[in-house]
Amino acid sequence: DTGVSQDPRHKITKRGQNVTFRCDPISEHNRLYWYRQTLGQGPEFLTYFQNEAQLEKSRLLSDRFSAERPKGSFSTLEIQRTEQGDSAMYLCASSPARDQVYFGPGTRLTVT
Amino acid sequence: AQTVTQSQPEMSVQEAETVTLSCTYDTSESDYYLFWYKQPPSRQMILVIRQEAYKQQNATENRFSVNFQKAAKSFSLKISDSQLGDAAMYFCASGARGSYIPTFGRGTSLIVHP
Q: Does A71 touch chain B (CB under 8 A)?
């Protein structure tokens, strides 16, 4: 059990570009979450998967954001046409059931 | 919908002393969990302590304990014998047992003075 991993750890992109982040949850965790965290704030929920099914999406998740979890294993979060307001830490977390969530180290996105 | 409020943006404590971090929450759920997470400067969030709402007994984990007041919807964290390694952001969170999507507060920055 190596914990939740995220790739890349840092991403700098120009406004208007598309970016994709990857999350590998702890193996056998069927629940996977994406959160966004900006400086001085707590994590804000974006979306949640149970296995491969995306069960809930926050209103924060605009049409430019899409997340997938093919085969119920790793997940990707894509942001299209990035804006400066998208600059944040994107956190992935996984959970075995109705229990605590385990966070990854996050991907820090900077949009210039 | 759930909301979590942490009214203390920053707290400080002397090493070896005790500090209490406050948290209030609001939920329409009858069955839920409460958590305190720690986020050190490296920014990987780790669980400090959890409490199931149906349990009246306050959770404890070594130097960390909670004061869970269900009627008041209050969930404070007490850190005893504070250590330099306790310096971090602390986030209070709640999650309904049914949907289980944790909602986080804005955090309290804990500074530990040697």
A: no
